[in-house]
Design goal:
The structure holds two protein chains of two kinds. By secondary structure, chain A is an alpha+beta fold. Helix content of chain A is 28%, strand content 18%. In chain A, strand 10 (242-248) and strand 11 (254-259) form a beta hairpin. Chain B is α+β, with helices and mostly antiparallel strands. Classes of the chains: A alpha+beta, B alpha+beta.
């Protein structure tokens, strides 16, 4: 690990200001992804700003009847919150399908959204990777790509976003609240937080330098049946090959977001109009124009079958 | 994966051997000295003040600075769970957190649970049920299994629960899911579950 200086921040605005004032600074919260990457020298910050003392760990009810989740709420606490379990079951289910108990105790809401891809070529510093070293090429294209994305990809990068939680947040229309170094605040719909790779896969979000996520807000509950179906190589503690997050209403309408198929949680509101016509019709729209590799082409029928199972579960659930 | 795990274990052993002369509480010299910081931890009930390179993980602080070598370094990347300790009542991977991030925190390691003369009930149950073979993952398994019983008691749901609103129960299926962050290369899993079932039954 490269050496770094360390400070504990005392307010979000102060933390954001420090992040642009000090060269090569990074925020650290749970640290479960950042420290892993620092040990491999994929991340090499010269300064760490510890935001754990910022009192951003509350879950509050909003005047609109939704929930405001502090950026530092740990995955365990978010999944266990009674209001989340009752009104946003999809979010609890997605969180509980991710990582291990130890990691969920540390991982934060904002950190989960900002975690990096688990593409093995991003992790292997001996391999070319446009995300890790812009311009060096992509070893995943034509390489081992079973876990990679097939929607929203480019010739520069086919890495998928690894978060389960973000899939649920996308289906729930979450909004990310931030503070910028000048102290101003911003609200970013989750659909606009993550960028597609294009020619610059190193730029993963629309956050500006120093901008700090302080909360994630959920609109008031929409009801319906909340189902998260994750397909993976092991029954527990593995990243998704694909996942389906769905909210299905009694009349058969609803929302669907996918994990494991794109560089961001994948949802197309237009595809949801097909829900009454079944999984095949929805998948045809959701995955139209898929750029699959030989190794990850199985994800297209897998999404369709997983969605069919989810819709069947929604119909048969009491 | 295996090559990485073996390499990091070997590195840890080498670092440990190289610093064999240092006294408890002082820093093993890193390859390139970096910025340092003071941190105070309460480990197994004792306040311990340390001067550490900011890069020092909680795991290395426990093992290399405090000589509490019960907590093990397996993968050093949060994948195996051998480094599991209990911080402020919650189990975490001590390899994926910095010592300086734990100012004032209460930390329990395997050394704080029991002694050879007075075993913790979970330690005794692991012995009774053969919950290990080589023993390397065992301190992490025991810290994790105790925390799992507490998590179930606190009503924290899991992936295998059918009803999100129901209180989770101390069943073998729940234990298997909740212990998935602790890998045992000897494959003592079913015996670990037996030990947990026994302790959970006794607690209820």
């Amino acid at each position: 690990m490269k050496s770094f200086t360390y400070e504990r921040a005392h307010s979000p605005a102060e933390a954001a200001a420090a992040a642009v004032r000090i060269p090569e600074a990074k925020f650290i919260a749970g640290g479960t992804n950042l420290l892993d990457l620092m040990k491999l020298e994929i991340e090499t910050p010269a300064h760490l700003i510890d935001v754990n003392g910022l009192a951003l760990d509350a879950i509050e009810t909003t005047p609109e009847g939704g929930l405001r989740i502090g950026a530092l709420v740990r995955n365990t606490d978010l999944a266990a919150d009674q209001r989340v379990r009752r009104d946003y079951g999809l979010l609890s289910r997605a969180l509980l399908a991710g990582a291990s108990g130890q990691l969920r105790n540390k991982a934060t809401t904002a950190g989960n959204l900002l975690q990096r891809t688990r593409c093995p070529y991003f992790y292997d510093t001996n391999q070319p990777c446009n995300k890790r070293k812009p311009g060096s090429g992509c070893a995943a294209i034509g390489g081992f790509s079973r876990g990679h994305a097939l929607m929203g990809v480019s010739d520069a990068c086919i890495a998928s976003h690894p978060s389960d939680m973000a899939v649920a947040m996308r289906a729930l229309d979450a909004v990310v609240e931030t503070v910028k170094p000048d102290g101003s605040k911003r609200r970013i719909p989750i659909a606009e937080l993550h960028r597609l790779p294009g020619d610059t896969p190193q730029n993963e979000t629309t956050l500006t330098p120093g901008e700090l996520i302080v909360a994630v807000t959920l609109p008031k509950p929409v009801g319906g049946k909340h189902i998260y179906r994750k397909v993976r190589d092991r029954a527990s503690y593995a990243f998704a090959l694909i996942s389906v997050g769905a909210i299905v209403q009694p009349d058969g309408t609803g929302r669907v977001a996918l994990g494991g198929v794109a560089p961001k949680p994948w949802r197309l509101e237009a595809a949801e109009a097909e829900l009454p016509n079944g999984a095949k019709a929805v998948t045809a729209k959701l995955l139209a124009g898929a750029k699959a590799t030989r190794e990850n082409a199985f994800k297209v029928p897998l999404v369709e079958r997983a969605l069919a199972a989810v819709l069947s579960e929604a119909r048969n659930q009491p | 994966m295996l090559i990485g795990a073996v390499a990091s274990t070997a590195t840890a052993a080498a670092a440990s051997a190289a610093s064999g002369q240092t006294v408890s509480g002082s820093a093993p010299a890193p390859a390139t000295p970096g910025p340092t910081s003071q941190v105070s931890l309460t480990v197994n009930g004792q306040v311990r003040s340390l001067h550490v390179d900011t890069r020092t993980t909680l795991l290395d602080a426990l093992r290399e600075h405090l000589r509490l070598t019960g907590t093990k370094k397996g993968c050093d990347h949060g994948q195996c769970g051998a480094c599991t300790v209990i911080v402020e009542g919650r189990r975490i991977n001590s390899c994926l957190t910095l010592a300086v991030m734990h100012e004032g925190d209460r930390i329990t390691t395997i050394e704080g649970l029991g002694t050879p003369e007075h075993l913790h009930p979970m330690q005794a149950a692991f012995i009774k049920h053969d919950g290990y073979q080589c023993g390397y993952c065992t301190p992490g398994q025991i810290c994790s299994s105790l925390a799992v019983l507490d998590e179930i008691k606190a009503g924290i749901p899991s992936h295998v629960g059918d009803d999100l609103l129901a209180s989770p129960e101390a069943t073998a299926a729940e234990f298997r899911e909740r212990m998935s962050g602790n890998i045992c290369r000897c494959g003592a899993y079913s015996n670990i579950i037996d030990a947990m079932v026994e302790v959970a039954g006794r607690r209820a």
